[in-house]
Design brief:
Blueprint (H helix, E strand, L loop, with lengths): L14 E6 L2 E6 L4 H7 L6 E2 L6 E2 L12 E4 L2 E5 L10 E3 L4
Parallel strand pairs: 1-7
Antiparallel strand pairs: 1-2, 3-4, 5-6, 5-7
The structure holds FE2/S2 (inorganic) cluster.
């Protein structure tokens, strides 16, 4: 398991678990999928369709579509716009 990169002094919601590419990842209620993935050390979310390389979080506010992941079987969800839910299944395609 990767080191938790969150600022420890910040108050958070309840601790929950999501699964990322089949592996358990700690998240907190109120976080976006994007925040949980970054805190777990994930930086690459997908590969460019035109061979330009790895893509990951850019805007963090739903505009750039660089953070697309599959959530609970639904492809092309923006990780920065989706709140985590306990038991959520996230698939990152770019690794
Ligand atoms: S990071 Fe830009 S849409 Fe998610």
């Amino acid at each position: 398991m990767m080191e938790d990169l969150r600022i420890q002094s910040v108050l958070r919601g309840e601790k929950i678990t999501i699964r990322v590419n089949g592996q358990p990842v700690v998240a907190y209620e109120g976080e976006s999928v994007h925040a949980a993935l970054l805190a777990a050390g994930h930086r690459v979310f997908r590969q460019s369709r035109n061979g330009a390389g790895a893509r990951g979080i850019f805007c963090g506010m739903g505009v750039c579509y660089e953070c697309l992941v599959t959530i609970n079987g639904v492809p092309n969800r923006r990780a920065c716009m989706c709140p985590v839910e306990d038991g959520m299944e996230v698939v990152i395609h770019g690794q």
